[in-house]
Design brief:
- The protein has three domains: about 5-130, Rossmann fold (3-Layer(aba) Sandwich); about 130-165 and about 210-295, Serine Threonine Protein Phosphatase 5, Tetratricopeptide repeat; about 305-485, DNA Cyclobutane Dipyrimidine Photolyase, subunit A, domain 3.
- Strand 1 (about 5-10), helix 1 (about 20-25) and strand 2 (about 30-35) form a beta-alpha-beta unit.
- It starts with a strand and ends with a helix.
- It is globular, with a radius of gyration of 24 Å.
- A five-stranded parallel sheet has the order 3-2-1-4-5, sandwiched between helices.
- It is mainly alpha-helical.
- The protein has helices spanning about 20-25, 50-70, 80-90, 105-120, 150-160, 200-205, 210-220, 225-230, 240-245, 250-265, 270-295, 315-325, 330-340, 345-360, 365-375, 380-390, 405-415, 420-425, 445-450, 465-485, and strands spanning about 5-10, 30-35, 75, 95-100, 125-130.
- The protein has 20 helices and five strands.
- Bound molecules: flavin-adenine dinucleotide.
- Flavin-adenine dinucleotide binds near residues 246, 288, 347 and 376.
Length: about 475
């Protein structure tokens, strides 16, 4: 009888391009696939409501795929993954544990302890890269330091060998003589008790098959126009693959090589251009992991130290209005409501709502990051941290703080007919064209015709953007002066 190994699934909820699974099988082990839910081990970032909902669906889908391979997913919930792995080793007689690496600071610390402890107990431990194109420690600048600016990082990535090709999905998964006990998926209590997640359920198909459908849609419908489409929240211009990537239902290597192969063989010049821009976005994700790996403290504090003492305000009412999409700025409100309803928001709108929180309302970027963490289905520590520090002007390669997004001009430029706002802010739907972006500038008659009572059916602006912009610049000056004085 062959010996058995535990394959510990984490953020790699797929069978394709899964090196931990494939290597365990190649070494002749019978495999016990395991998922351990241990939110207490995620440091300050246990999964939020939206990602828990996604996780439930994704685990269900993985279990089904394993059943199709005459295997099954063993679920456990634990305070300590190490204790649970030890129990599983005892129950199954496993002599090895295989997993794909994670790169968040708390996960690295936990995995290092587990590896040391199991190795000491004579259990083989094998870990692999399955969620990045390049290991973060292999990418260095000419001075052997980590990159802090994207463009040279991107150029460097292009100058080194192509990311490895994905490994194939196993045809068979050798099962142990007897599977250990599994708890029921519902016992993980990942789905919300109240029905707020119905919009998310409608909008997405979590799981590996859903991820690959999304990839096909990218190739069929999105890539050729990605250069422009990626800025247009009113169009289907982006791949919406981020939650699938976060949960590892598809790997960046699969995306990289599929996009390259497709445009290399079949598609036209526009798709080639779109593909180049798209792959650059995938490398932005890599850059986020590169930053978090090399500067782990940035999950809480700005990379740019002078922003540590930025004079942010505490204003719970303003924060609530932002969270609920009631700021009186239609593009901001549309984004925040799209987020609440579907668990996702277009990147252009993330930048606008982020800038609005940090610069117009002078609220700390950490408050925005926390809200996104709880409401995004793609909430990802590396990308969320980088995204928020970018909008706040305090991260690597950040937008300079003094460049303040104008939510009205952004709306007119990237949602020119107002369709995006009309969809998510239905109380403004009676307004035609780009007037929808400035209801406060309309005459009483125009508002009445559209059935809008400003201040009642839709809020008046929470701040005057032009005044708020100057206040933000003053705040910036104050920290610059502080720095000079020091
Ligand atoms: C304030 C803020 C917070 C963010 N929080 C997250 C987060 O928690 N999780 C997350 O996955 N992304 C985050 N992003 C990045 C980006 O908005 C999303 O990755 C993107 O909107 C996902 O949609 P998509 O898959 O259609 O993207 P596409 O435009 O189709 O891009 C393809 C993929 O490239 C990667 N990518 C694209 N843009 C970025 C970027 N700016 N940074 C990092 N990766 C990128 C993503 O993996 C994305 O799925 C954040 C951005 C901002 C400004």
């Amino acid at each position: 009888m062959s010996s058995c190994a535990i394959v510990w699934f984490r953020q790699d909820l797929r069978l394709g391009d899964n090196p931990a699974l494939v290597d365990a099988l190649n070494r002749g082990f019978a495999v016990v696939p395991v998922y351990i839910h241990a939110p207490g081990e995620e440091g300050k970032w246990p999964p939020g409501g939206a990602t828990k909902f996604w996780l439930h669906q994704s685990l269900k889908s993985l279990d089904k795929d394993l059943h199709d391979h005459k295997s099954k997913l063993i679920l456990r919930t634990a305070g300590s993954s190490l204790d649970e792995l030890r129990k599983l080793i005892k129950e199954t007689g496993a002599t090895a544990v295989f997993w794909n690496r994670r790169y968040e600071p708390a996960a690295i610390e936990r995995d290092t302890t587990i590896k040391e402890s199991l190795t000491k107990a004579d259990i083989e431990v094998h870990s692999y890269n399955a969620s990045l194109l390049f290991e973060p420690w292999t990418i260095k600048n000419k001075s052997e330091k980590p990159f802090r600016v994207f463009t040279p990082y991107w150029r460097h990535c292009l100058s080194i060998a192509e990311p490895p090709h994905p490994v194939s999905k196993p045809e068979q998964i050798k099962a142990p003589a007897k599977f250990p006990h599994t708890i029921k998926l519902d016992e993980l209590e990942l789905e919300p008790k109240i029905k707020w997640a119905e919009g998310i359920r409608e909008a997405w198909t979590p799981g590996e098959a859903g991820a690959h459908k999304q990839l096909e849609k990218l190739l069929e419908n999105v890539l050729a126009n990605y250069g422009e489409g990626r800025n247009r929240p009113d169009q289907v211009g982006v791949s919406r693959i981020s939650p699938h990537l976060h949960f590892g239902e598809v790997s960046p290597r699969q995306i990289w090589h599929r996009v390259k192969h497709e445009v290399g063989t079949k598609r036209g010049a526009k798709a080639k251009e779109g593909a180049q821009i798209y792959l650059k976005e995938i490398v932005w994700r890599e850059f986020a992991y590169h930053l978090l790996y090399h500067f782990p403290h940035t999950e809480h504090v700005p990379l740019d130290e002078k922003f540590r003492h930025f004079p942010f305000k505490r204003d719970a009412r303003a924060l609530k209005r932002w969270q609920k999409g009631l700021t009186g700025y239609p593009l901001v409100d549309a984004g925040m409501r799209e987020l609440w309803h579907t668990g996702w928001m277009h990147n252009r709108v993330r930048m606008v709502v982020g800038s609005f929180l940090v610069k117009d309302l002078l609220l700390p970027w950490q408050a925005g990051a926390k809200w996104f963490w709880d409401t995004l289905v793609d909430a990802d520590l590396a990308s969320n941290t980088m995204g928020w520090q970018w909008v706040a002007g305090c991260g690597a390669d950040a937008a300079p703080y003094y460049r303040v997004f104008n939510p009205t001009l952004q709306g007119k430029k990237f949602d020119p007919e107002g369709d995006y706002v009309r969809r998510w802010v239905p109380e403004l739907a009676g307004l035609e064209g780009d007037k929808i972006h400035t209801p406060w500038l309309l005459s009483d008659e125009e508002l009445e015709q559209a059935g809008i009572v400003l201040g009642k059916s839709y809020p008046t602006p929470i701040v005057d953007h032009s005044v708020a912009r100057l206040r933000a610049l003053d705040a910036l000056k104050s920290i610059k002066e502080d720095t000079i004085l020091k």
